[in-house]
């Protein structure tokens, strides 16, 4: 039995079909990343480094000690 990539499927070889599916999936992934990046860039900027003590205490109580919301 011959390997599926080496077989002919009508006018196309098996590896041509694999390349086509690969390019389509990479293109779809790139589109989704671009769409998500544009959505994130629409948000306003955030001053994340202005209150270290508050952020660290929220991290410890909310994540390490599993504080209920």
Characteristic key phrases:
69 residues; mainly alpha; two-stranded antiparallel sheet; 2 helices; 2 strands; elongated
Strand content: 5-15%
Number of domains: 1
**Class based on secondary structure composition and strand pairing:** mainly alpha
- Please, what is the average pLDDT? 89
Uncertain stretches of 5 or more adjacent residues: none
Biggest β-sheet strands, sense, barrel: 2 strands, antiparallel
Helix content: 55-70%
Assign an overall shape.
elongated
Order of helices and strands: EEHH
Number of helices: 2
What is the terminal separation in angstroms? 59 Å
Strand adjacency order, main sheet: 1-2
**Secondary structure tally: strands:** 2
Evaluate the radius of gyration.
24 Å
């Amino acid at each position: 039995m011959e390997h599926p990539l080496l077989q002919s499927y009508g006018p196309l070889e098996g590896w041509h079909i694999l390349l086509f599916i690969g390019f389509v999936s990479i293109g779809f992934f790139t589109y989704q990343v671009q769409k998500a990046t544009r959505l994130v860039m629409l948000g306003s900027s955030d001053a994340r480094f202005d209150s270290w003590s508050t952020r660290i205490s929220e991290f410890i109580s909310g994540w390490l000690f599993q504080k209920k919301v």
